Amino acid sequence: MSEMQRQASLSAGDVLYEAARVACLAPSIENSQPWRWRIRGNTLELHAVRSSQLTATDPEGRLMIVSCGAVLHHATVVLAALGAAATVERIDDPADPDLLARLTRIGRHQVTAEDMRLHHALRTRCTTRPSVSPAPSSARRSGRRRGGGARSSPGRVRSGEQA
């Protein structure tokens, strides 16, 4: 089955799940992935996970929120690549400060080449952690870098569970 055929066969819930799953490849502060997704009908909710906040590095949680913004962006890219139009609603609710945003499916989206280019870019992103010591001079001359890439692991996606 081709990628396009597989995308066309996804249910509404599967599209949201896939968007959340792939979005979790987004970069985050120290690869902490301080977010959790929740699927409710046609809506994907983004929650901050305060227990993942790196308080020594990020005492106010600003970088945690920026990390959540990256995963939100990635979810919109995946939805577009899957042909799903969605609205993004930023949430500022003092009663639930961890609920940051909602993505709501509102219909179909005509997939563009740019949608697919962005989707490919976020699917192939990797984290490189080169060693602290300098690379041997032969590696520097040839343009090679030490250290290998490691894909970030998917974060948390929950369907219908309490946040």
Give your account of this protein's structure.
There is one protein chain. Helices cover 34% and strands 23% of the residues. It has five helices and seven strands. Strands 3-4-2-1-7 form a five-stranded mixed β-sheet, with helices on one face. Helix 3 crosses helix 4. The longest helix has 20 residues. The protein is flat, with a radius of gyration of 18 Å. The two termini are 35 Å apart.
How would the blueprint of this fold be written?
Layout: H1 3-8, H2 12-23, E1 35-40, E2 43-48, H3 62-81, E3 84-90, E4 99-108, H4 113-124, E5 127-128, H5 137-142, E6 149-150, E7 156-159
Parallel strand pairs: 1-7
Antiparallel strand pairs: 1-2, 2-4, 3-4, 5-6
Helix pairs in contact: 2-3, 3-4
Can you describe this structure in just a few lines?
With 163 residues, the chain is of the alpha+beta class. 34% of the residues lie in helices and 23% in strands.
Properties at a glance:
163 residues; two-stranded antiparallel ribbon; 5-stranded mixed β-sheet; 5 helices; 7 strands; alpha+beta
